Amino acid sequence: IFEYDLKKIIALSTLSQLGMMMFSISLGLYELAFFHLLTHALFKALLFLCAGVLIHGAGNTQDIRSFGGLSLNFPLVTVCMNLANLSLCGVPFLAGFYSKDLIVELACQYSWGIFILLMMFICLSLTVLYSVRLTYLSFVGPYGGGTSISVCESDYSLVGPVVILSFTSLVSGPILSWLNFPAPVLIFLPAFLKWGALFF
């Protein structure tokens, strides 16, 4: 949450998602942990590629305090990186939602205790917090004074893989869900727990 290095933020968010996978394994949900690993690999690769384009275009600096307002110079990378960030947060119908929401709902259904559920929801809210912070400081916030080269988006060797991974991170959630779980998973939860993941 207090890190300013772009690559470190993305790498530390990988540790957060590995914690989610270990949490799933500790509940005995091995298939869900593997499913989350696959979907997470796709949108995390997209995050790292977008970060590489931003670092290259911002004069080889990784400090997000010197970015600010990059959405004007990098509109395509902004859309793709925000797509990956929203998928990381588990926004409905993106790749991360299909795996993360299933882990959260099954953890709530098994009712492992209020402390474990509370810690899980706090971790979910922290994921959203550092993702929104990264988006704000990089794309929306005030200009930090760094150099910016907007011609990076005209280089198809940089932007081509970003667009391809954006498409796969959109469609990989439902496709992998259908491949891994041919039968639908029935989850019975009270309304406040069903909406808990989206609320946090």
Automatic annotation (TrEMBL):
A cellular-component GO term for this protein: mitochondrial inner membrane
Assigned EC number: 7.1.1.2
NADH dehydrogenase subunit 5 C-terminal domain mapped to chain residues: 130-199
Pfam families: NADH5_C, Proton_antipo_M
Keywords of the record: Electron transport, Membrane, Mitochondrion, Mitochondrion inner membrane, NAD, Respiratory chain, Translocase, Transmembrane, Transmembrane helix, Transport, Ubiquinone
Molecular function as annotated in GO: NADH dehydrogenase (ubiquinone) activity; NADH dehydrogenase activity
Topology within the bilayer: Multi-pass membrane protein
Catalysed reactions listed for this entry: a ubiquinone + NADH + 5 H(+)(in) = a ubiquinol + NAD(+) + 4 H(+)(out)
GO biological process: ATP synthesis coupled electron transport; electron transport coupled proton transport
Subcellular localization, as worded in the UniProt entry: Mitochondrion inner membrane
Residue span(s) of domain NADH:quinone oxidoreductase/Mrp antiporter transmembrane: 2-121
Residues that span the membrane, as ranges: 9-27, 33-55, 76-98, 110-136, 181-199
EC class of the enzyme, as a word: translocase
Record function comment: Core subunit of the mitochondrial membrane respiratory chain NADH dehydrogenase (Complex I) that is believed to belong to the minimal assembly required for catalysis. Complex I functions in the transfer of electrons from NADH to the respiratory chain. The immediate electron acceptor for the enzyme is believed to be ubiquinone.
PANTHER family (alphabetical): NADH-UBIQUINONE OXIDOREDUCTASE CHAIN 5
Name of the protein this chain belongs to: NADH-ubiquinone oxidoreductase chain 5
Annotated gene: ND5
